[in-house]
Design brief:
about 200 residues, eight-stranded antiparallel sheet, rod-shaped
Length: about 200
Amino acid sequence: MCFGLSRDTAIKSGQIAHLDQNASNSALNNLVFLCLECHDKYDGTTSQSKGLTLGEVRQFRDELHEAIASEWNAPVSFVGAEPPIQTIAGHYVREGPNEEAEFDVSILADGRVRVEGFALWGTSRSRGPNIGDLAFVAPVINNSTIFREEIPSFREETPVGEYRLELEFGPDGLVATESGANNFNFGMNVSFGGQYKRVSRRSTG
């Protein structure tokens, strides 16, 4: 009746009611699930003032059954569950005049990503560049993954802040947005933020 009168599809507590109000008649066509409130209305005298007939309630029941069947027979779509291997896994590189950074992204069996990052700043320095690296495992939601870690103080008391890195994956690369890098355990001026392009993995040797 809730569905038939107002298209209310909320989950309800209720009971199986006998349409002819004869408890001994348990024929399938004589049974209907009614929420507690509607059951009281249907079995009570108030149903007469509503003008609800047995035929109308049967019609409401059939419409609800059809709607439920349509939903159950529709193709199943799991939001965010599509394996991101083809669009996310790979090697990503960002290069600048005096710095560079890269990410290796792989997919775990449970659908999360493992990210390994390596960054340099001061690649033209005679004493060598400053270095930063990180590794984390996190879920992917809407083609984005986030890494957070508290930044400890030098005296190892309360944290001085939080390092946050978000990777947003696109068809040809990713955008890294970070905060707190200056106080994290990277070398001075080392940063992972910026635009990366996906490339073939570099050969070694």
